[in-house]
TrEMBL record:
InterPro entries: DHS-like_NAD/FAD-binding_dom, Ssirtuin_cat_dom. It comes from Leucobacter aridicollis. It holds the Pfam family SIR2_2. This is Deacetylase sirtuin-type domain-containing protein. SUPFAM superfamilies: DHS-like NAD/FAD-binding domain (SSF52467). The keyword Repeat does not apply. The lineage of its organism: Bacteria, Bacillati, Actinomycetota, Actinomycetes, Micrococcales. The keyword Transport does not apply. Residues 4-357 form the Deacetylase sirtuin-type domain. PROSITE patterns: SIRTUIN. Keywords: NAD.
Amino acid sequence: MSAPDIDAEVMAHFRAITDTSHLTFVIGAGASAPSGLPDWNTLTTRLAVRTGVVPSEHAARTLIEAQDPSFLLEAARTRAAEEWSQLVGEALYSGLDGPLRPSPLHLAIAAHYTQFPHRTSLATLNFDTLLEEALLAAGVDEIRVATSAYDFQSANASVAHLHGALESTDYGAHRNHEMVVTYRDYAELLAENSPWQLEYLTQALDRGPLLLTGSTYRDPDLRHWLHKALPSSSNPALVTIVREGLRLDSQTFKEVRPALQEQWESIGLSALTLHDFSDIALIVRELPTAGHSGYVAPKGRAIATFRRHNERFAELQVEFSEALSAAARRLKHVFGKMPVRSTFWLANGQSELVRWATAEGHYRSPDQFKRVPIGHDSPWIAGQTLATEEVQLRAVDARQHSSPKWHSVLAIPVFVSDGVHPRVCAAVLTFAVARTANSVASLRAQWAGIAQELSAEWSKRISGVGFAASASTMSVKRGGDHGGD
């Protein structure tokens, strides 16, 4: 399930929060994973190895699987002593492929906050400040952060860090703000009768529904707080369970999905299962319009777009082939006139991307279309790009490719809008390049702007085909902006 597969049945689960007086978001590590930050097990592994508690990553993973990771982290902190905050920061931010940026979910939540600032509350279980960065990018001038009881009581916080925060300074140091990491941190917090985090969640549920997303609910304090806060509230708490976060394949996820839903509902939370982290971002963007009369779910809009393209099949084959050739020439100039092959993929609303047009020729019939799966774990970069809503660059495995000419593939997401609902990532442009992925990555500063322009141009093109009646009123945003329309 990705953006073009979110149907009315899925959106119906969120009816309770589509038109509410107040909504509180609580996000976990899954919100920051698409930005390149590690999950809890990976962070624990890095800290255990860096502090010398274990000799290898394999040893760390073995202990994590066999016991509560907080014990291993307690030993790591004891070894690190005064260097603890610095080591946590290094473990959190190491291994990034590029600049650290907010994920589509951060941006979607920030956009929701700017649209409904007086009836939206934001809380995070993460140490990073990506949610604050998303708010700044959305135009929020003043951001008040709560990491302690004093912060919570003295100001109406824009973002509550329920497990503290790690502030990065300009000179590479990391400053600890009440971080909850180890066994002792959790034990001391659970021993408090009325921690500020419990008061925050209780007040949040008094005001309206709560949406917990990106968390596996392993934190004992969060479980304890919600156990105490939920019984006295008449407002629902919803949780999203994402296959990508659980690292399960589709078949296994299908088998355990009923049990996952039942276990969450048995403790008082309404559960919705999704496949990709970006699905949550899409749903957040849909919330402001999902309760309106005449609402059409993303799947319906994707199917309509695909059908209308097929209705103009012969005409668009010529037009799109010429446009793809022009796009390839623009990138070819950046890549030193090395060969570039361009392709347009369009979602059919059936969990597939269809190779709809190429620069090399015209299809004679839709029966010739190649179909590939969509998802974060799709074997096709086009399928991955639609699922993540981010530009992707991958090396080509020569052993699995028929032509030795192509060494890398650049994929660009394309969005469709009907001028009424939020836009949906419904298509992808791919460019096979006769240069290595490392070589293409080194030229990012030169092609990133072109990628944004191509995303915007093709978004306008396919939106005009899919929803011609409203095309003149549409405002198609640039490819790098994933906020709601």
